[in-house]
Design a protein that fits this description.
alpha+beta
């Protein structure tokens, strides 16, 4: 009996789990999410998905039997709609989080000063111009266009396109298509140049 109820709960939460998984692949979030947090997020997403499906009159495809206390889903289109809503709602949340729209609004209202991104590292690389000069602790400097960067500042990886070393104030072409800077290079600071 308990196993059957657990399966029913899992099936009910499945759209939320789909949304959480897609959102995790589109947004940089904490790596140490606990199982309970994931279940709560799936529950919230499932609630939103089922509310949205009822507003769109998709629930007409669900048959309720009050005598047996059961719900049946006789139409396969219901599953397709719920999966599409799960995907769409996670894309919408990813867009809102990555663009920082909600947090921009609450910062404008002076409610908080936080951003929606995980760290200042993400904020800077997401919003600032791509032309940078990377200064290393050994005194060397390199100029280039940031094409890729790591999601977490604890392991700062940066890929620069068309890198040029800066020696005695002059740019020296490396002849490379790109340069991957790893944490072993010990970045001192990064200068972001105006376009």
């Amino acid at each position: 009996m308990f196993t059957f109820q657990a399966i029913q709960i899992l099936i009910f939460l499945m759209p939320g789990f789909i949304s959480v998984k897609i959102l995790d692949s589109l947004v940089v979030r904490k790596q140490d999410s606990k199982d309970l947090e994931i279940v709560i997020q799936a529950l919230i997403f499932s609630l939103l998905i089922y509310t949205l499906s009822s507003l769109l009159k998709i629930n007409n495809l669900i048959t309720l039997d009050p005598n047996n206390y059961s719900i049946s889903f006789p139409h396969p289109f219901l599953y397709i709609w719920i999966i599409l809503i799960s995907i769409g709602i996670s894309f919408l949340f990813a867009l809102i989080i990555n663009q920082g729209w909600l947090m921009s609004l609450v910062r404008w209202l002076k409610i908080t000063r936080k951003t929606s991104r995980l760290s200042v590292w993400n904020d800077v690389f997401y919003t600032k111009p791509r032309r940078v000069i990377v200064d290393f602790f050994d005194g060397s400097r390199v100029f280039g266009w940031v094409e890729y960067y790591s999601d977490y500042c604890e392991n700062p990886f940066i890929y620069l396109a068309q890198p040029q070393w800066i020696k005695r104030g002059k740019f020296e072409n490396t002849g490379l298509d790109g340069l991957l800077i790893t944490p072993d290079q010990k970045i001192r600071f990064i200068e972001f140049l105006k376009d």
